[in-house]
Amino acid sequence: MSASPLLAQLIEALRCLPGVGSKSAQRMAYHLLERDREGGLRLSAALAEAVEKVGHCESCRDFSETPVCAICASASRERGLLCAIESPADRLAIETATGYRGLYFVLQGRLSPLDGIGPKELGLDKLAARLAQGEVRELIIATNPTVEGEATAHYLAQLARQAGVTPSRLAHGLPLGGELEYVDRGTLAHAFGSRSEIPS
Amino acid sequence: MSASPLLAQLIEALRCLPGVGSKSAQRMAYHLLERDREGGLRLSAALAEAVEKVGHCESCRDFSETPVCAICASASRERGLLCAIESPADRLAIETATGYRGLYFVLQGRLSPLDGIGPKELGLDKLAARLAQGEVRELIIATNPTVEGEATAHYLAQLARQAGVTPSRLAHGLPLGGELEYVDRGTLAHAFGSRSEIPS
């Protein structure tokens, strides 16, 4: 029993965060009330504003508070390259790690018929229409290398070919800095089979 | 670079939670926006309400949105027993694990002269006044078994004796279900020295 119903309500509400159980929620609530009430207020306002205003970009389906997101609206991005990814977090990872200057299309999921997620849920009708416009010349398929991700990639490649767009896929192989001994068998077999000649 | 400034603001605000770095904050923000906008709104409201309304109980210094908290106001608690603890989380732990039916006094910290935390910051003047009233007959000192906690316990015990109140301390020894081999030396030495005869 907590001495304060409002505190109990806050602890319960914090549990909607992923990876936060009752113990962490309790620690967070105490921390905010004891040491960072200002941060708590800021978080409350940021949450309300984001939930209310952040929707999806009409063009790439990424999160955006404007109809078209900053990247899609940017004049400095190469419009002939389109990279299909599963989630907004993947976009952030690619933007941080690579020098990619093209555009994105965020599927917000992957094909998973058992969960009722088909081409329509991923906005693939929208993607097909966009590919048909002729502006895109290469569709870089960057879905995750899982079974469902591979199935989605296969579907996307067909979609691209139908529209006369070149589909491409991220390279698979040994991770940099990894050791052969600790790499999983599937990856090792793939890397072995896809070995390339060393240019002289 | 995030496609949405509001999203970036939310990720930054989430970092005020203890144990949440930029990666977790990002995951939390995406989760809330993708799958649980309702939970996000609930959390926002609960945070704002708690930060605004939850203060400290006049009697025990625990969190409370009323001047006197539910436990201190309860007629069914034994008013002769007072348990001094460092934080509200400790009260929750004692309430959950034990059948204690007395009252609490939350120090909201421990004596730590180097950090500028003296008797006044812990409300010990208030505690002394309460002990002097004569209602309390035993002060159960449940500070943590750390150096600072022990120093605080020593100070509290003196305070109790001055007011003619019996001070008591939680037992130290082997944790239940622990193994001798893995218990730290200090605890083992203490448990060995404080061994008790097995009643026949």
Automatic annotation (TrEMBL), chains A, B:
Keyword Metal-binding: yes
Any GO MF annotation of the entry: DNA binding
Zinc finger intervals, C4-type: 57-72
Pfam family, one: RecR_HhH
CDD domains: TOPRIM_recR
Domain named Toprim: residues: 80-175
InterPro entries documented for this protein: DNA_Rcmb_RecR, Rcmb_RecR, Rcmb_RecR_Znf, TOPRIM_dom, TOPRIM_RecR
GO biological process annotation, one example: DNA repair
Keywords annotated in UniProt: DNA damage, DNA recombination, DNA repair, Metal-binding, Zinc, Zinc-finger
Family: Belongs to the RecR family.
Record's function text: May play a role in DNA repair. It seems to be involved in an RecBC-independent recombinational process of DNA repair. It may act with RecF and RecO.
Name of the protein described by the UniProt record: Recombination protein RecR
Lineage, opening ranks: Bacteria, Pseudomonadati, Pseudomonadota, Gammaproteobacteria, Lysobacterales
